[in-house]
Amino acid sequence: MAMTDLLNADDIKKAVGAFAAAESFNHKKFFEIVGLKKKSLEDLKKIFHILDKDRSGFIEEDELKFVLKGFTPDGRDLSDKETKALLAAGDKDGDGKIGVDEFTSLVTSS
Length: 110
Hints:
single chain, two-stranded antiparallel sheet, 2 strands, 54% helix
C-alpha cells in the first residue's frame, strides 16, 4: 500500500514542501496539512505500518529521521533535533520508540 492510497498527493506535496527548510518541522502542523487529522483510526494504523519500514511494530528513532520520505521520496531527512522532538512528543511510555497506539494518539491530540 502506498501513502497516496490513503492521502491526497497534493496534500502530501504541500505538507512536505511547507517544511522543506532545515529545522522547520512541526509535527502538529504537518499532520494537519497532510490530512492525517481527518483520517479514521483504521487509516491512521495503515499509515503507521507504511512508516514502520522494518515492520517491527514500532517507529524507532532511525525511522523517524526519514518520516517525510515515508510520505514522498522528495521529503528531506529530519535533523537530529527534529527527530528527538518528534520522538519525545510521541513516545508516551518512554521506551524510545513509537507504537501504533502512541502514533494514533500523537496525530489525534496534535
